[in-house]
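Reopening closed ticket. The problem is back. First fold of the pair:
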Amino acid sequence: MEIDIEIIRKLAQPSTLPDGGKIVLAVLDGLGGLPIEPGGPTELEAARTPNLDQLAKEGTTGLSIPIARGISPGSGPGHLGLFGYDPLRYEIGRGVLEALGIDFELGPDDLAARGNFCTVDEEGRIVDRRAGRIPTEVGARLCERLQKETSIPGYEIFVRPVKEYRFVLVVRGPGLVDGLSETDPQRTGVPPLPIKPLTDDPAAARTAELLNDWLEQARRVLANEHPANSLNLRGIAKDPGIPNFQEIYQLKAAAIAVYPMYRGVARLCGMQVLSTGETMASELDTLEQHWDDFDFFFIHFKYTDSRGEDGDFDAKVKVIEEVDGYMSRIRALKPSVLIVTGDHSTPALLRSHSWHPVPLLMWGTTVRPDDVTTFGERACAHGGLGRFLAKEIMPMAMAHAGRLAKFGA
């Protein structure tokens, strides 16, 4: 039987533990990996991680399946699963998450899309999907140009920078709908795709036409820029509204994340998003400063995913080692439950998100230890938690924090 979020809502209670039942969910984005050579270590296995290994030795481990077996998740669905929502039931477009992540207040008539600046050749074929990861200030300048030099008659448009090559496009006005395809073909050597309606709704066809017209204008504006001489739109969506995380779990919940998309998904779920700096160290500073104010902390570390997408095995190893160095600071706060995992796997070998289950460790005062002594894919495959859907993580965390009542008489 699958655990329904409404059952958890009925069972949620204040912690019965003397230590207060605080929960920390530390997410190393794209944590899972693959060996570069047959028989070799994954990125996590190759990393020197004494703190994570100690937590695994004292706690219990397993492998998390973000959505379903064989399905490669996007970051939005991956995080929804970690927060206890069924990603197949609650579909949220990337554009909504990006907009909320930069504190853009979406209204009922707003349609949001995540934009990526990219590089195309003379034939219009994509040669770099991320425009060389241009600096954020360059992306901001390009957004200013697009805001001033493009329009959609009868509608308001907002072009806002996010980070590096990412931006948000919001179109405001009547009759806009989602259910549209994306323009990014997810590979190089081919031109961007046109936006197409994915339903027979005439409003979807009209919305697609409006966005394609805007894209044509925007590409003319960018034509002489370098390296960001074109752009793509992804995750075109409206705010769907989902159940409130804090009300479901009876937790005062905080999110600590640098990248806007992850701040957006946390805000959409109803968490309080805390201001923090650009570094991992500043994220830990924020956690320590607000430790007494919340019951639950989601803390996000991005660059494990970025280095995997770059195909840089060694750089991903170094990021994992850097995060390991901060685990002692989290442990020193004495949470009732500490979970360390990822939202999905991003093997450097594949340079992309993948379907592989994600290593997870759970440490705390009521955790039953298993025989695993290191934190890695092979070790976690033998862990006491086994393999489970990511949406089951929050019920496990709640139980170990003394925050779930008994079911039935």
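Second fold of the pair, where the issue appears:
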Amino acid sequence: MRRLPAPLARPRALTVWPAAVAGTIALALSGENAAHAAPPAPALAAVPPAPRTLGLPVLTAVPAASTYTVQPGDTVWAIARAHGLDTGAVLAANGLDAGSVIRPGQVLALVAAEAAPAPSPIPAARTHEVVPGDTVSAIASAHGVSIDAVLTANGLTRASIIYPGQTLDVPAPGAAAATASVASTAPATAPGLDAEQSDNARLIIRIGRELGVSDRGIAIALGTAMQESWLRNLDWGDRDSLGLFQQRPSSGWGSPEQILDRERATRVFYGGAGDPNGTTTRGLLDIPGWEGMAYADAAQAVQISAYPDRYAQWESAASVWLSVLG
């Protein structure tokens, strides 16, 4: 929705991973067109996807010898969830990766992931409000901790950008190892996102799952929100644009209060039969043939932005966020 020639503030620099979604839908036919590619970006060290922490019911683990025959419409994510398993463990047990396609009739081995050891207690963290001129290095030095400890505590990388007014958690001296242990077993963030952005991404994923939206549709929603608001529920924007998707009250997307309701705004973006706006606005599910559109074109069909090509840059990253948080 925003029509400024450039973002209103500099977003955090992003770790771009290869486009891959662990829950690839099992296809009965082959030859599906490849997704619209995102522009090249600097390659950074990859971090293995972390265990999901969505609060799902704990299910009894399936014995290692158990198998499952893929049915039409299945995804690795859904199969793993139904059997109380970790998606990464199922992928590894079958020699698959996050971009693999499963097909009806294929037999998958179901193997539970090894239980992670209980994390060590972490000393209470302090906070630091970023002021102009601050750097992570200077903040870490002032508090007697390592740069990596501060980065890990805040879900940042060495490519991340901090900005004035941002509050950073600063672990107590000597807590870096414990912090890193917890981060490696149950982090609250996805690569390139901080806690707030990851929380908003989880909400977009959750609502997409509830509405039966495909992984591709959810990835389009994630990339759209990143381009429009940096995955933050902004109470400002270009002209009267607001919220995660920078929807405009003057264009019929709802009152300011409704647009700032993250869940409602997300449901309005998806649209479809349950759209809170009814037929006043048109969401992704209301776009004829959106599944066959290039990533950026599908996002643009909803947003009607002055800069339609900018959505494409988030395609690969959105797939990673979905595989980690979804």
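Update: turned out to be a display glitch only; the data is intact. Confidence is low (pLDDT under 50) at residues 3-65, 176-187. Residues 195-325 form one domain. Please close again.
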